[in-house]
Each structure stands twice: as structure tokens, then as C-alpha cells.
Amino acid sequence: MVANIFNKLIHLQNFTSILEKLPYSPPFLFVDTLQHVDENGTEGSYTFPDDSFFYLGHFKQAPVTPGVILTEVMAQIGVVCLGIFLLSDTLTSNIAIAMTGTQVDFYKPVFPGETVTVRSTKEYFRFNKLSCKVEMLNSRGELVCRGTISGMMKPTTHA
């Protein structure tokens, strides 16, 4: 029992440490919580606020979350959080991030106020390049989108 509580506290500290190292801030921070992170993948969630800036024009009468934002949510939770975890032993400063490739298929819309869950599975991590299979589910467990996202990460000395 004590060991389980201790392990949960360590996981929470790791998750908090990862979230603190993310190089984003509102309104472009799309990670609310991390439920799982290990060397093979992540799971996390994000709730889209009703007043998010991108709903004003996409679309005027029936707001829908743009696909590029859904892709960014998957990249932040599924690739960047995993990359920070994988580099945690050597990461002592800020990080520079560059997305190197995306291929995403979309199946269902995401509306204002919805919570999504992102799951990623590492395909490879070499020379600071990380590629992951990533999927997004809505709160009903339905597949919203899935694909492959790749990016590069490296420590930097400036913000």
C-alpha cells in the first residue's frame, strides 16, 4: 500500500516536471494532464475552452476545432511530452523544438468545451528525432483522428 502511494507520488512529480518544461504558454498550451508517460509513449488530455481564439472564425455559426489545432494537441501531448521524458537525464535548460513531419487522418469533429485524450506510441527515437504513432479520442472514447508525428528536440541556452 505504501509502495503504491510512493510510486504514484513519483509519477505525479515526473508529470509535473514534464509540464513545467513545456515551451508553451496559454493560449497555445494544449496539455491539461498527463495520465501516463514511459519510454514507449504517453497518454494525456486537454479540454478546449469555449472561448478559445480559433472558434471565432472557424466556423462563424457552428464552431469546430481546426484540424491544425488537433494536430498541435497531439504533438504537444504525444511527442513533446514524451521527448522531454526521454531527454530528462540530459535536459538542464530550455529546449528548442521543430516539427519535422505529420500525417494525420481526421474522423470526427471536436467542439468547444470537449475534452480529448491523446495516446502516443514511440516508433523511434534517434539523434534527438522522435517519431510517434498518435491517436486522439473524444470523451465518448470515439476516434477523432490518428496519424504519425515526428519532431526534433535539443537543449538551448536561450528562451
From TrEMBL:
Keywords: Lyase
GO molecular-function term, one example from the UniProt record: lyase activity
Keyword Lyase: yes
Official protein name in the record: 3-hydroxyacyl-[acyl-carrier-protein] dehydratase
Organism of origin: Spirosoma fluviale
